[in-house]
Amino acid sequence: MGFKNYCFKKSLWVFHFGGASCNNCDIEILDCLTPRHDLERFGILLVGSIRHADVLLVNGSINIRDKERLIEIYNQAPKPIKVVAIGACGCTGGLFTESYTFAGPVDKIIPVDAYVPGCPPKPEAIIAGIVKLVGTL
Amino acid sequence: MAVNLFYFLIFPGLLFAAVVGAFLSWFDRKITARIQFRKGPPLLQPFYDFFKLLLVKETILPKHGSPLIFLLAPIFAVFGATMSGVFILLPLLNITTGFRGDLLVIFYLLTIPSFSYIIGALASGNPLAAVGGSREMKLILSYELTFLLLIAGVILKCGQQFDLYSIIQTQQTGTPFIGSISGIILFIVGIFCIQAKLALVPFDMPEAEAEITEGIFIEYSGAGYAMIKLTKYIMFFILPAFLIALLMNGFRLDGIHILWAVLKVLAVVLVITLIRNTNPRVKIKQAIKFFVIWMNLLAVIALVLIEFGY
Question: Which residues in chain A touch residue B221, judged by CB atoms under 8 angstroms apart?
Answer without folding.
Answer: 51-52, 78
